[in-house]
C-alpha cells in the first residue's frame, strides 16, 4: 500500500517508502486515474524515501502512463536523493507538457509549497 495525501482538490501527494514493484505501480496509476475523474488537471508530489529502488522497466511503464495522460498533469514535484531517478525525471520535463521539478529530501517543504501554488 502507498501513502497518499491531498493538498487540495487538484493536488495529490504520494510517499514511497519501499521498493516499487508492479503491484505498487498499478496502485499509484489507479489512484491517479481516480484523481483525474475529480479534476481534469492535477499537480503531483512524489517523495521517494532513501534507498527505494524502482526497476527500469517500471520507470518506462510509468513514463508511458504519463505520456498517455499528457495534458492531465500541471506540475510534478519529485523529492529524491537518487541521481538515476533525478536524471530520468529531468528527461520527463522535456517530453511532458507539465512543469517538472526535482528536489533533494532536505528541500521537501519547498517542494510542497511549489506543488501547492
UniProtKB/TrEMBL annotation:
InterPro entries: SpoIIAA-like, SpoIIAA-like_sf, STAS_dom_sf. Transmembrane segments: none annotated. This is STAS/SEC14 domain-containing protein. Pfam families: SpoIIAA-like. Gene3D superfamilies: SpoIIaa-like domains.
Amino acid at each position: 500500500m502507498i501513502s497518499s495525501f491531498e493538498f487540495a482538490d487538484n493536488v495529490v501527494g504520494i510517499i514511497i517508502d519501499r521498493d516499487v514493484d508492479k503491484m505498487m505501480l498499478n496502485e499509484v496509476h489507479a489512484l491517479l486515474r481516480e484523481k483525474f475523474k475529480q479534476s481534469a488537471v492535477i499537480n503531483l508530489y512524489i517523495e521517494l524515501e532513501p534507498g527505494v529502488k524502482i526497476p527500469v522497466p517500471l520507470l518506462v511503464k510509468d513514463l508511458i502512463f504519463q505520456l498517455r495522460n499528457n495534458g492531465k498533469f500541471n506540475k510534478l514535484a519529485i523529492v529524491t536523493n537518487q541521481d538515476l531517478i533525478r536524471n530520468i525525471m529531468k528527461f520527463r520535463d522535456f517530453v511532458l507538457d507539465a512543469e517538472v521539478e526535482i528536489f533533494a529530501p532536505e528541500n521537501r517543504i519547498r517542494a510542497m509549497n511549489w506543488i501547492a501554488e
